[in-house]
Amino acid sequence: MVTMRDVAQEAGVSPMTVSNALTGRRPVSARTRQLVLETVERLGYQVNVAARSLRQGRTGVVGIAVPTLDSHYYSQLGHRLVLAFSQAGLATVVEETHASREGELAAFRDSRLNAYDGLVIAALGLSEREINALSREVPVVVLGEQELHQTVDHVSMPNLEGSEAATRLLVSRGCRRLAIVGSPSLDDLADFVVPEGAAFTLRAEGFLRAVREGGVSATATHAGVTQAAGVRCAENLLALDELPDGIFCVTDTLAFGVVRGLADHGVRVPDDVLVIGFDDVEDARYRVPSLSSVAPDLDHLVDEAVQLLQRRIADPSAAPRDVTVGFTVVERESTTRRGR
């Protein structure tokens, strides 16, 4: 059986370095960590979770709770988190909360009852007070857009800035009649609540900011979060007196539905209307037309979530961190008119 010493000898490092690279207990360079992981893979080394649990009083298992796995974004995020924790020598249990307060409370309960070492949760339904209280019972990293005032470790996406940049792209491409898909209204954004959480509100705020800056007209439509909802939103826009010439969708999933809904009525993207999404899921580059999208730095988001949870498990009293990852706007066919 391959041991940690075998891995250390093969990689030319100490056993302690191998341990730190796999557990994140102490920092190692990215180059050394990669070397150790490649050596582990090549030799087929398996972390002895049971033995480590006895030594550390831990299970070697963490929970991942997301609203749904039937989603381009959350299935991609969950997959990346599972891989990253596996590389860190931790097993994972993934569950759906169905974007409900009850489901999120259940994730914390399951973490306690099953003695998970910690929990990463994309929380939409819980209040700051509830998250703060529950975080005292299990190490937690929260993914999402709640204003948690640095009470727990928190990793968020650049929702406002990303949507603003996406909308500016539409304006720069000559669009003057814009629409946002995924927002019930553009009035009193601070007051309305959608089940999908604060991310959609922030993306609407970014959209509206760019609309005002560009001096263009705008409308909004909302029918849910699925591709079918995107089709219904496209039909809503087609019913207007004048079809928008640029559409920002708050998720790529909605954008896929919008493009389909427009095509069903003979409206072509990008010839007749430009469309851009948010999340840059893998399918975006393979659709016809390929979808322009805001690409959050998911590698950074996943790395931060894993490292912060390992840090919180090792030191429950550590000061909480609040991280917002960066983004790029990836332009593809859906915002590139022929001849450009």
What does this entry look like structurally?
With 340 residues, the protein is of the alpha/beta class. Among the domains are: 1-46, lambda repressor-like DNA-binding domains (434 Repressor (Amino-terminal Domain), Orthogonal Bundle), CATH 1.10.260.40; 159-296 and 329-335, 3-Layer(aba) Sandwich (Rossmann fold). Helices cover 44% and strands 16% of the residues. It contains twelve helices and twelve strands. The strands form two sheets. Strands 2-1-3-4-5-11 form a six-stranded parallel sheet, sandwiched between helices. Helix 5 (72-87) links the parallel strand 1 (61-66) and strand 2. Helix 8 runs parallel beside helix 9 (198-214) and helix 10 crosses helix 11. The longest helix is centred in the middle third of the chain and has 17 residues, at 198-214. It starts with a helix and ends in a 10-residue tail after the last strand. The model has no long low-confidence stretch (mean pLDDT 89).
CATH superfamily annotation of the domain at 159-296 and 329-335 = Response regulator
Assigned CATH class of the domain at 159-296 and 329-335:
Alpha Beta
CATH topology heading of the domain at 159-296 and 329-335 = Rossmann fold
What is the number of beta strands? 12
Q: Numbering strands along the chain, what is their spatial order in the largest sheet?
A: 2-1-3-4-5-11
Helix/strand layout:
Layout: H1 4-11, H2 15-23, H3 30-43, H4 49-56, E1 61-66, H5 72-87, E2 91-96, H6 101-113, E3 118-122, H7 128-134, E4 140-143, E5 153-156, H8 159-172, E6 177-181, H9 198-214, E7 217-221, H10 227-238, E8 246-249, H11 252-264, E9 274-278, E10 292-296, H12 298-314, E11 322-324, E12 327-330
Parallel strand pairs: 1-2, 1-3, 3-4, 4-5, 5-11, 6-7, 6-8, 8-9, 9-10
Antiparallel strand pairs: 10-12
Helix pairs in contact: 1-2, 1-3, 2-3, 5-12, 8-9, 10-11
